[in-house]
Amino acid sequence: MHLEFPKGFLWGAATAAHQVEGNTHNDWTEWERMNAERLAKEAQKRHNGDASWRFPEAFNPQNYISGRACDHYNRFAEDFDIAKSLGHNAHRFSIEWSRVEPEEGVFDEKAIAHYREVLLALRQRGIEPFVTLWHFTNPSWFAKKGGWERKENIDAFLRYVARVVDRLDGVRYWIVINEPTVYTGAAYIGGLFPPQRKSLFTAFLVLKNLLTAHRRAYALLHRRREERIYVGTSHNLHYFVPYRRWWIPDHLAVAFVTYIADLYQLRIVRRHCDFIGLNYYFRDVIKFVLGGGAYGLADRVNPNQIVSDLGWDMYPRGIYQVLIRLRRYQKPIYITENGVADAYDEKRADFIHEHLQWVHKAIAEGADVRGYFHWSLLDNFEWDKGFWPRFGLVEMDYKTLERKIRPSARVYQRICAMNALPE
Ligand code: BGC
């Protein structure tokens, strides 16, 4: 029997500006130039201890410079043709703030016109746009004045949001912030993303400011548009499991990290969103370790039996657990990211199929899931890891920029076309 999805379910893929557009000028582009050599050297070290870092591109500093990326800025129409040919009826992309407002208070109408064209191109192909307003990158001027560390800077973000929402007509779905906790953790705790400041206190401020920005943008977007729009934020949520089922401290550690990483942000935005955006990648097995590990009180000890090219523990059932947990918020849910780094396309088709089986089960048990966006449409620039991890339904030849549809994209195409999982 086929597993049918609800009528009107949205099927698509997601991208983010800096990862695909090419030739952006923001805090990341500056950071990449300064850190490419270091990242290439560190990759060599990681390679020795971690078999998943086996890709030779990782040792080349050029891998860490986003440069022209997929040149999606110029080739978006071609890419949307591909999305359409793959049966997608929705697409998530982000607007690059540094293009729209290259200098503080100075807006570039040409950049805004570009995104109007992008929207038009999607609509002409019958693809529903989901527009992300902020996906990890900041204009350099914003970063220089303290970025998200300073509460006063939220006004600058809102000014940009106001400009965009006034100028982009007909967008029904807005995603204000992409993964507040991932950015905070990577940029202010893990030392992985710019500005690589390691301070728990600053991390907390940044997270709070991002969530305030979401709340204020939510009100602003609704104030400025008369038509019915739907506003949410994309949250990276986890399925945390205790390492030892019989050991209470492991359970306490799970409760602690679930609150810090997931529940805190949901508690703050739940009354200020029309839907919840869920990004799900892997589960985390959590062990209580006093004063140590990834979270201060807990360490991640994943079994890593089936892993992606990035060494991420693949665990499709986790998406079900997270969706069941989200039921209590009584909001529509869109899965705004779910995907796998898999250069040889050996695991992606099963990954999609199995995750969707669990999504289907969650829907049958009352989770109001209305769409699924695979990460990603194209191979792209994977932040501090650079280009070697391959997340695309479509493979990118970075030398020729030729796009090649992967076999797993065809498997997903069939699901989109049938609005169901074939047996
Ligand atoms: C981010 C994407 C990223 C993906 C895979 C998410 O955390 O939103 O930008 O490429 O994960 O790592």
Characterization of this structure:
It is globular and about 60 Å long. The model has no long low-confidence stretch (mean pLDDT 96). It contains 13 helices and 15 strands. Helix 8 runs antiparallel to helix 9. Strands 2-3-4-5-6-8-11-12 form an 8-stranded parallel β-barrel, surrounded by 5 helices. The chain has a 3-stranded mixed beta sheet with strand order 7-9-10. The termini are close together. It has one domain (2-422): Alpha-Beta Barrel (TIM Barrel), CATH 3.20.20. The chain is of the alpha/beta class and 423 residues long. Beta-D-glucopyranose is lined by residues 16, 19, 178-179, 182, 236, 279, 337, 375, 382. Beta-D-glucopyranose binds next to loops.
Number of domains: 1
Our count of helices gives 13
Count of beta strands: 15
Q: Assign an overall shape.
A: globular
> What is the succession of H and E elements?
EEHHHEHHEHHEHHEEHEEEHEHEEEHE
**Assigned CATH superfamily:** Glycosidases
- What is the CATH C-level name? Alpha Beta
CA distance, first residue to last residue: 6 Å
Question: Strand order within the widest sheet?
Answer: 2-3-4-5-6-8-11-12
Q: Give the quaternary arrangement of the chains.
A: single chain
Structural class: alpha/beta
CATH architecture annotation name: Alpha-Beta Barrel
